[in-house]
């Protein structure tokens, strides 16, 4: 069943329930139960489903931010959209990307890379740029430029990313590619790197993360993905970067005299 059909199926259930008024039907569906018990939350879900339906039909991505600003009075604050999306994804057994809904991208890259999608293309050459979300339509391709990087360095912190640029890291080790998501990786960053890992498995991918539990957690999220259905790919599988290697600093490398 297509994503459009699944969304339309929910609408059909709601219309059928409103016509019959059968209270027993509400017990069998989470959406109908919300309609009865929490009409305001149900209304928010309907707005999200409507926007997702339009995005899937037109094959374009929308952001959580655009959902919020479509009706800020209804949503009140942007933070409530995530749990609503989780409910929709769970009910439909779909990852968030199947609904064409992304968070605003945090991805920044620096290096020589060619990104192509259909007839559109962007060349990112020794420049730190966010990746346009239009590049993440269905079936997009990431193509490394002719000058293949010797390695890709994923940097957890934006401050360290900037410091490496200021220290002329690229000029010393080029050709290479520096990547950051400015903290915990968003879906777009992970899809971008997973695509490169899949298309170019021989390019080493190295991660530079804090030597603390949070840093290790960020590393594991990049490398292994997550079972959260909202953060999986179109096939419902974790978005992973199996070739990612931890550069350090490791907790075992820190002297007890320093702590």
Automatic annotation (TrEMBL):
Cofactor or coenzyme needed: Mg(2+)
Gene3D superfamilies in the record: 3.40.1360.10, Winged helix-like DNA-binding domain superfamily/Winged helix DNA-binding domain
Places the protein is found: Nucleus
Catalytic activity: ATP-dependent breakage, passage and rejoining of double-stranded DNA
Residue ranges of the TM segments: none
PROSITE patterns: TOPO_IIB (PS52041)
Domain Spo11/DNA topoisomerase VI subunit A N-terminal, residue spans: 41-101
Main location (coarse class): nucleus
Superkingdom: Eukaryota
Listed InterPro entries: Meiotic_Spo11 (IPR013048), Spo11/TopoVI_A (IPR002815), Spo11/TopoVI_A_N (IPR013049), Spo11/TopoVI_A_sf (IPR036078), TOPRIM_Topo6A/Spo11 (IPR034136), WH-like_DNA-bd_sf (IPR036388)
Active site: 69
CC terms in the record's Gene Ontology section: nuclear chromosome
Annotated keywords: DNA-binding, Isomerase, Magnesium, Metal-binding, Nucleus, Topoisomerase
One of the record's GO molecular function terms: ATP binding
All residue ranges annotated as the Topoisomerase 6 subunit A/Spo11 TOPRIM domain in the record: 151-255
Family in the record: Belongs to the TOP6A family.
Protein name: DNA topoisomerase (ATP-hydrolyzing)
Organism: Schistosoma rodhaini
